[in-house]
Write a structure and sequence with these properties.
single chain, alpha/beta, Rossmann fold, 7 helices, 12% strand, globular, disordered C terminus
Length: 190
């Protein structure tokens, strides 16, 4: 297994990417990057209207996230990106600028995802798009540097397992030891 300079917390809408990503980032004194914050306005309008994004819609967004990850790694940060990364081709765009990127795959059922999304106030992704997320999803099983985990587990347990996995990876984070988070760490830095 190669070095993992950064992690992407991935999965369908409602699986807990942001919460788990923040918990991991806090645990390693990392930099949390909220992928949804970088969607262009056109994408947000499209999803808000109940229309799924196409590969073309996602292309610029993924390229931007790939650059943000690359820059964070070059700056000596420990970036943790919350991003759906539903298809292998999407993950490959991210890997293109950050080789040996790690992925925490939050697995859950369509039913649970739909329930969670329907109870998220103020988010642009409507529950009506959950089916399209599952239709697009290409699970990363068999890909390098992937930690699949049940998204129904408590966030603290998911984060603890993901951090332990990241730390066990030879040469993870360029060999720098990961330290417990300090107070006020892990805020969005993008």
């Amino acid at each position: 297994m190669g070095r993992m300079p950064a992690l992407v917390v991935m999965g369908v809408s409602g699986c807990g990417k942001s919460s788990v990503g923040q918990a991991i980032s806090d645990a390693v004194n990392g930099t949390m990057i909220e992928g949804d914050s970088f969607h262009p306005e056109e994408n947000i309008k499209k999803m808000s209207a109940g229309h799924p994004l196409t590969d073309e819609d996602r292309a610029g967004w993924l390229a931007r996230l790939a650059t943000i990850l690359q820059d964070a790694v070059r700056n000596g940060e420990r970036p943790v990106l919350a991003c759906s990364a539903l298809k292998k081709s999407y993950r490959d765009i991210l890997r293109g600028k950050t080789p040996d990127l790690g992925f925490v795959f939050l697995e859950m059922t369509r039913q649970v995802a739909g329930e969670r999304v329907s109870h998220r106030p103020g988010h642009f992704m409507p529950a009506s798009l959950v089916d399209s997320q599952f239709a697009t999803l290409e699970p990363p099983h068999g890909e390098a540097n992937v930690y699949p985990v049940d998204a129904n587990l408590p966030i603290v347990d998911i984060a603890r397992g993901a951090v332990a996995w990241w730390q066990r990876t030879p040469g993870a984070d360029g060999g720098r030891p990961m330290q417990p988070a300090k107070a006020q760490s892990g805020a969005l830095k993008a």
